[in-house]
Amino acid sequence: MSEDTLVSVENLKKHYTSTKTLPDRLFRRTSPPIKAVDGVSFEITAGKTLGLVGESGCGKSTTGETILALRSPTGGTVKFDGKKIGDLSDTEVKNFRRRTGMVFQDPFASLNPRMTAGQIIREPLSVHDVGTQDEQRDRSKSLLKRVGLSADQYDRYPHEFSGGQQQRIAIARALAVEPDFLVLDEPVSALDVSVQAQILNLLADLQTDFGLAYLFIAHDLSVVRYVSDRVAVMYLGNIAEIGPTEAIFERPQHPYTKALLESVPRARLSESDREITTLEDDVPSPRNPPSGCRFRTRCPVVIPPTDIDIDQTAYREVMDLRERIEAGTLTATDVDSTTSNTADAGTPSQQSMTANSVWPGEISSSLHGDNAVAVKTARAELRDGNRQAAIETLRDRFETVCEHDRPEHSNKTHHSAACHLRH
Ligand SMILES: Nc1ncnc2c1ncn2[C@@H]1O[C@H](COP(=O)(O)OP(=O)(O)OP(=O)(O)O)[C@@H](O)[C@H]1O
After folding, report:
1. What is the mean pLDDT of residues 288-293?
2. pLDDT mean over 404-409
């Protein structure tokens, strides 16, 4: 941890356990928890911005809310200014609350409609007992001006403001008690594009003036690139890659970061022919995330076992096939019994089989030698009702390091990707 680290997050976990319904209780059913955040580590430097990006549902908001102790962690630690949040005394908790704050995506929903702009901004001053009534009023008015509104708007209600102005009020409220750290959860994504830049510039000015540190949560990569000193890329409850902004955008290391960047529309004409890898498949459920590397089920460069010879397209097809058998979405009834059978599965003389002969309708790549034999054997086993044997046959031959080992970050302080290809 460096001297000017303000927030330090180590192996943070937040799992949501669902409340049991009556049938669940009657039948003693338990559903696995949602692993929204599952072992996240990073640091935020005083006065700097860490951007947190990732697809919807990957755990960004939960990370921000858990860091601010709005949710209790399932595991791991958060330190603020060197002190562990869970160990704070009542006075220290109050001080932590004063020094931290949050700005939400939907400004209207985050402002009390029955309070005026002035009352909203004053509220934290009252809660923390800062100043006299007159001083609180004066400070609220000067904050209104500081965020680009007018002191005359003090007595107006939220609905009398535009979306951008409402977000300015929410920012003023967050600044009222002079915090050091703000979690900004998608602060511009609900706003018109024309207003977004104004709010981003305001946040940048305030950061410079008050030395604020930000955790800036967003799914819009161009926004994150614009505001962040460092960027953490999150996937299914884990940090896939973290590093300085330019390094992440110019020299991404993790296949997920690359795919995320590739999925951004190309701005320059010169780039219009660039081949793109889009993230088409759905993100797996955080209730039952893939073992090993969380991204392996969608990864375009998943690593085959070192002792087999297979190209990436064929390997991905075989992996997807096994996933479907394991998930129960490919069953015996889906196997056409008129073609292929167990007998021809392991014929040693069959060194190469055409795509059609290996698993009609499922495998379109050509597989050779023992790869083809394993897939044909699994097919026959599934058709004969022996699903577990089919899974084992495929696992024995094709199990990958990406599947049984969770990749670690090699370099926690600079630029690092949690990917087996980096080791
Ligand atoms: N209070 C909750 N109870 C149960 N599950 C939750 C709760 N809050 C979030 N989740 C689940 O946890 C996972 C992570 O959600 P989270 O909102 O943190 O992700 P996110 O990356 O911020 O998504 P988005 O960009 O859509 O806001 C999701 O699967 C979500 O459905």
Report:
1. 92
2. 92
Question: Nearest residue CA, atom 25 of ligand 1?
Answer: 56
How far is C-alpha 306 from the chain's CA centre? Answer: 30
Domain limits at 375?
Answer: 312-399
Distance 156 CA to ligand 1 centre (A): 34
Specify if 294 maps to a domain: no
For residues 233 and 111, membership in a common domain is answered with yes
pLDDT tens digit sequence for 167-198: 999 999 999 999 999 999 999 999 999 899 99
Is 387 part of any domain? yes
Give residue 299 CA to ligand 1 midpoint distance, Å. Answer: 23
Residue among 319, 324, 274 nearest 299 (CA): 319
Least confident span in 111-115, 167-171, 296-300: 296-300
Pairing, β 83-84 against β 100-103: unpaired
- Residues with Cβ within 8 Å of residue 399, at least 6 apart in sequence: 305
Are residues 49 and 159 located together in one domain of the fold? yes
In angstroms, what is the span from residue 291 Cα to ligand 1's centroid?
20
User: CA–CA distance from 382 to each of 277, 340, 352, 376 (Å)?
Assistant: 32, 12, 22, 10
ipTM of the complex: 0.98
d(CA 313, CA 301): 9
| pLDDT recorded at residue 280 | 65
Where does ligand 1 bind, in terms of residues with CB under 6 Å? 16, 34, 36, 54, 56-62, 219, 286
Asked if the structure places residue 201 within a domain, the reply is yes
What integer pLDDT is reported at residue 1 of this predicted model? 64
